[in-house]
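stuck on this one:
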Amino acid sequence: MDIAVQVRGLHKSFGELQVLKGVSLDIPNGEVVSIIGPSGSGKSTLARCVCNLEDIDQGEIALYGRRADKGGMSNKEQSQLVGMIFQQFNLFPHLSVLDNIILSPMKVRGIAREQAISKAAELLDRVGLSEKIDSRPNELSGGQQQRVAIARALAMEPRIMVFDEPTSALDPELVGEVLEVIAELAGSGMTMMIITHEMSFAKDVSNRVVFMADGAILEQGPPEQVLERPQEERTRTFLQRMLPHHTNVKGAEI
């Protein structure tokens, strides 16, 4: 089996705060993994370490069999393998939607401008924003900005996409349009790691759900098992708080 992401014994601290405590995780090529858990559990730090946005203290991270931590892979190589979508959209406010999308392919991959523009137009059509190609970020809703951010990441043609709570900064009525785009990507066979608090979405799009708490993975398995028949009391307690109107979690009145 081709393993896209391999994490072994990952430890990460910020000062005296130990955020990741020996996390190990494999994500096979083409798998969609949703990572859930309470705030402070280490989910976002794990995502940032996989994307080489944080230095790790101990352990190993490999992408398609190549070490990616501790300088094992250049930033250019990393950016061509992994695209990351953040809670905040991080678009350049002074650039148009088009220029936001074509900047990295031209600068990092050396793609010709005409080719980059053609790809950007294709991606904007894919995320439903063709008419916004000349707009500035401040002319877009939050949901539209996040969809542009997804198009920008896809323009680098990464093999893996990492989403760090991509809807947490959005007004509730805008969440659906972003989740729809992510679901379409999941259906396309792309390898994905999704940090999310959208439990029903995780159930619908994931091959596997991973539950983290206190810097460790406590439980993982098929979505129906983890979300409806959790084995760990800590998982059940979390789901009780996240799904107060549901009663289909074994062993818990939710």
Q: What stands out?
A: The first strand starts at residue 3 and ends at 14. The mean pLDDT is 93.
